[in-house]
Write a structure and sequence with these properties.
The chain is α+β, with helices and mostly antiparallel strands. The chain has a single domain, classed as Glutathione S-transferase Yfyf (Class Pi), Chain A, domain 2 (Up-down Bundle). It has eleven helices and four strands, in the order βαβαββααααααααα. A four-stranded mixed sheet has the order 2-1-3-4, covered by helices on one side. β1, α1 and β2 form a beta-alpha-beta unit. α4 crosses α6 and α7 runs parallel beside α9. 39% of the residues are buried.
C-alpha cells in the first residue's frame, strides 16, 4: 500500500456538514483536509449521515485511499508519511518533540473543550447538540443515539477530571492554550517559521472552526479573537490552501454559520 501512488479518487468521509456535524468533528475533519492540502494530495470530501459508524475507530474523519481506510489525524499522518509525504522532515529531533508537545496541548485543551461545550453545557446540548447529532434519524432513534453519545462523552470527562469544571473554567483553559500557541507562533507565518507542519494543520482546523461556527454565545470564539496573530494565521491558511476551492472544500464545510474570516 505504501508503494502505491496517491490515487485521484481518494476520499475523506465526515458527517453531513449542513445539518449534522458538530464543532469537534468539524475541526478534526478540517485539520485533516488542511494537512492533505499542505501535502498537495487531492481529496474529495464525502458527507454521510453514518460516517461515525463507518469509521474503523468510530471517529471522524477517515480517509479511503485505494483499499486502505484510515481514521483520525495521527494515523493519517503516518499513512501519508509511508507514501513518501511528510511536512516535518525538515525539523530536527528537538523541534519534532516540541511539535508533538504542542499537538498534545491542542488535543488536550481545545478538542476537550469543544467536547465539553457540546455535551456538558446544558443549553448547548438542548439547543444545538441533540438536534444536530440526531438530525438524520427518526424519533426515538435520534434521541437514543444522542443520549448514548452524551453518556459516553460525559464518562470520558469524568475520567480526565473535567466533569466538575464550570464553563468559565473551560473557557479559561482555552484562553491559556491560545496564549501558549500565540507565544509560540509570534510573528512567524507558521509555527516552525516558513513551512507548515502537522501542527499548523491541527491548530488551523480547531481555531478556524471555532471562529466560524455559530454557537449559543460568542464566548469561545472571543477567546481566539483576543490573539490577533492566531486569527491572521487562520486567514493566511484559508487564503493559501482553500480559497477558490469547490463548494465541498474544507473552508466552506467548516462554516456552519456561513461566516468567513475574510468577510
Amino acid at each position: 500500500a505504501a508503494a502505491e501512488p496517491w490515487p485521484e479518487n481518494a476520499a475523506l468521509y465526515q458527517q453531513l456538514k449542513e445539518d449534522q456535524i458538530l464543532l469537534s468533528d468539524n475541526a478534526s475533519s478540517l485539520a485533516v483536509q488542511a494537512f492533505l492540502q499542505m501535502c498537495n494530495l487531492p481529496i474529495r470530501v464525502i458527507c454521510r449521515a453514518n460516517a461515525e459508524y463507518m469509521s474503523p475507530s468510530g471517529k471522524v474523519p477517515f480517509i479511503h485511499v485505494g483499499n486502505q481506510v484510515v481514521s483520525e489525524l495521527g494515523p493519517i499522518v503516518q499513512f501519508v508519511k509511508a507514501k513518501g509525504h511528510s511536512l516535518s522532515d525538515g525539523l530536527d529531533e528537538v523541534q519534532k518533540a516540541e511539535m508533538k508537545a504542542y499537538m498534545e496541548l491542542v488535543n488536550n485543551m481545545l478538542l476537550t473543550a469543544e467536547l465539553y461545550l457540546q455535551w456538558c453545557d446544558d443549553v448547548t446540548v438542548e439547543e444545538i447538540t441533540h438536534p444536530r447529532y440526531g438530525s438524520p434519524y427518526p424519533w426515538p432513534l435520534n434521541r437514543i443515539l444522542s443520549y448514548q453519545k452524551q453518556w459516553e462523552v460525559r464518562r470520558k470527562m469524568k475520567a480526565i477530571g473535567w466533569a466538575g469544571k464550570t464553563l468559565e473554567q473551560v473557557l479559561e483553559d482555552v484562553d491559556q492554550c491560545c496564549h501558549a500557541l500565540s507565544q509560540r507562533l509570534g510573528t512567524q507565518p507558521y509555527f516552525f517559521n516558513k513551512q507548515p507542519t502537522e501542527l499548523d494543520a491541527l491548530v488551523f482546523g480547531h481555531l478556524f472552526t471555532i471562529l466560524t461556527t455559530q454557537l449559543i454565545t460568542d464566548e469561545l470564539s472571543e477567546k481566539v479573537k483576543n490573539y490577533s496573530n492566531l486569527t491572521a494565521f487562520c486567514r493566511r491558511i484559508e487564503q493559501q490552501y482553500f480559497e477558490g476551492q469547490e463548494r465541498d472544500s474544507a473552508a466552506i464545510a467548516a462554516r456552519s454559520s456561513k461566516r468567513s474570516l475574510l468577510r
